[in-house]
Structures are given as C-alpha cells and as structure tokens.
What we know:
The chain is built from seven helices and twelve strands. It is α/β, with parallel strands linked by helices. The protein has two domains: about 5-115, Translation factors (Elongation Factor Tu (Ef-tu), domain 3, Beta Barrel); about 130-235, Rossmann fold. The protein has a seven-stranded antiparallel beta sheet with strand order 4-3-7-1-2-6-5. The protein has a five-stranded parallel beta sheet with strand order 10-9-8-11-12, sandwiched between helices. Helix 7 links the parallel strand 11 and strand 12. Helix 5 (about 185-195) runs parallel beside helix 7. The two termini are about 35 Å apart.
Amino acid sequence: MGVGKGWEHVVLKLLRGKDFVFTVTGAEDVTDHYRRVRMSDGGLLAAVGGALHPTMWVRLWFQDGGRPHQRAYTLVDPDTAAGTFSLEFALHDGVASDWARAAEPGDTIEATVQGTGFTTPSPAPPRLLVIGDPASLPAINSLLDAHADVPATIWFETQHGSDEELPVRADAGRHELRRVPRDGSALVDRVRAELPELVGDPEQAYVWLACDAATTRTLTGFVRKELGLPKQRVNALGYWRAA
C-alpha cells in the first residue's frame, strides 16, 4: 500500500509528476556521515528515456509521525539497460537520513519525478566553476562526468573530518578541488576572494552552485550583480536550509 502523500503530491500530479516505486538492492557506508543506497528503478529510467540528464533528481516520500515528508535526491550512476541507480545521503538528524541508515535489500520507497531539468551551457565554458557541499556531491559528480573534457575548479564545503574521504570525482589533471571547512561565512568569503580571477569573460563563464539556501542566495547575488554573469550562465539551487 502506498503512503499518503498529502497536498504536495496532489500538486505534483497536477503538474504531471510521474510516480514510481524503487526497491533497495544494497547499501554501504561511504563514510560515517555519508551512505550510498543502491536501487532498482521500478521502470523510471525507461520511462524518462531521452530526458535523463546530469544532476537529475527524484522526490522520495517518507512518513514522519504519520505525515508525508518529501526530499529530493540526485540519481547516481543511472544504468538504463539494467534499470538501476544509486542514491547518496549526507547523514544528519531527520526522517530521510533515518530511512537511509536502516535501508536494506527488499525495502521499497515511493518516488515522484517532476520539475527536474538541466541545460548544457552554450557556448561551452572554458572552465566549470562549481560550488557545493556533501548534499550536492552526487550532482557535482554527474556534472563533472558529463563534461569530462572541461577543466573545473570546485569549492567543496566540508563539515566532518571524514568528508575528506568523500568520492569527489575530480581528476588531478583537469580539476582543482578546493576544500573549505564549514565555519560561518568561510565558504562565502573564499569564493568571493577567489572566484573573480577565474571568471574571465562573464558571457563565457559558467557557475554551478548548490549549497544551503542562504549561502546559495548570497553567492548567486555576488555572481550575478558583482561579477556580471548573465542569468543563463549561472545554475543555482539551494539544496537545504540550516536549522
């Protein structure tokens, strides 16, 4: 029996959201604060077909004290032929992390696909300028995979010591990874100090940004208003809200 999803699901259905049921096939702890759950897709990948794209995400539905609760997660290494993918969870307190910690083969979870999209920057930028944290790591990796020949600089905010072990798919020959320990405005300060020298022509530059909502909002304003990047050269999304 499906979980009750409340008014949010009604709205998504009106917007032509498609529902699927995923089945857990395995899980592993990547670090003590990060867990990967492998899934069979319930027909999702075949249904989306050519619409599969880098950073593609789905909404998972959880029950929290009898109330529906949804969170979005990026597909990791989707395999259309096999009908499989993984989801990765930056663990903290909350119903989604609790589900991920307990997930084992045979468990199922309902999901809705609606609203996801990605436009490849054109013209291609000389360098990807990427800003994120563990919550957006799956999307960062899919972006790097999709633009394997493009150099990139990645500012990656970390919180735990074990975050140094997270699998950022940065190639030392093409990618520069700049880790920034989470400490107040440290990430904002670093990006404001270091990003301008890498932007070059604002019409050619491309910034991909996905952090907590407040940081994303601050840095988006900086990139658009102070560095002069056009709207279509900035992809920004707040992935979570600080408590």
